[in-house]
TrEMBL record:
One of its GO terms (molecular function) is oxidoreductase activity. Keywords: Oxidoreductase. Gene3D superfamilies: NAD(P)-binding Rossmann-like Domain. Coiled coil: none annotated. The keyword Zinc-finger does not apply. The keyword Cell inner membrane does not apply. InterPro entries: NAD(P)-bd_dom_sf, SDR_fam. It comes from the Eukaryota. This is NAD(P)-binding protein. It comes from Aspergillus phoenicis ATCC 13157. Belongs to the short-chain dehydrogenases/reductases (SDR) family. The lineage of its organism: Eukaryota, Fungi, Dikarya, Ascomycota, Pezizomycotina.
C-alpha cells in the first residue's frame, strides 16, 4: 500500500506489484492447492485481507480494489467448493499496534507520533488499536474442524470500526 497515492499517480510497476501480491497470488495458490485439497477433503482456507475492501479510503484506490478482490474471490470459492467439503473464509483486522503502523502512517522507520495513534484510536469505536493478540486466534478458529459449518464469512477484527 502507498499512503496518499490514489488513482492516476500510481505507476504501472506499482500497480503490477500490487495486483501480483494481492490478486494473482491467490489465483496461483488456488489453482495449485484446490485440486490437491479436493483429494484430501475436508479442508479450510483462511485468507487475511484489509478493511480497505469494506471501508475504502480515497487515497488508496488500487490497494482498496485489490483487497476487495481478495474478499470477493474468497467468497466466490466458498459455495463453489462447499460440496467438496472445502471451506473458504477471510478475516480483516483494522489498524494494529504492529511494526507496520509507521508505514501506514506514512513515516517509515520513524516512531508513529502520539497524535497519529490517538486519531487512529478515536476512529475505532472500542477506543484502541488492534493488538496482535486480538488477531491471533481468528485463523485457528476458522481453520478448526469444530468450525466446519462456517464458510464464506468475513470476520472483522476492528473494534466495530466498519459497522
Amino acid at each position: 500500500s502507498w499512503p496518499n497515492k490514489s488513482g492516476i499517480v500510481v505507476t504501472d510497476e506499482e500497480s503490477e506489484r500490487l495486483f501480483n501480491v494481492n490478486i494473482r497470488s491467490i489465483y496461483i495458490a488456488s489453482k495449485i492447492l484446490i485440486p490437491e485439497k479436493r483429494k484430501d477433503s475436508p479442508g479450510s482456507t483462511v485468507v487475511i485481507f484489509s478493511e480497505n475492501a469494506i471501508r475504502p479510503g480515497a487515497t488508496q484506490t488500487w490497494y482498496n480494489a485489490t483487497k476487495a478482490g481478495v474478499s470477493s474471490a474468497t467468497k466466490s470459492m466458498a459455495p463453489k467448493f462447499a460440496r467438496d467439503q472445502l471451506r473458504f473464509n477471510t478475516y480483516c483486522p483494522t489498524s494494529g499496534n504492529t511494526p507496520l503502523l509507521d508505514k501506514f502512517a506514512g513515516i517509515p522507520n520513524s516512531p508513529v507520533p502520539a497524535e497519529t495513534i490517538k486519531a487512529k484510536c478515536e476512529a475505532i469505536p472500542i477506543g484502541r488499536l488492534v493488538e496482535p493478540s486480538d488477531v491471533a486466534n481468528v485463523a485457528p478458529f476458522l481453520a478448526d474442524p469444530a468450525s466446519s459449518i462456517i464458510s464464506g464469512v468475513e470476520i472483522l477484527v476492528d473494534g466495530a470500526r466498519c459497522v
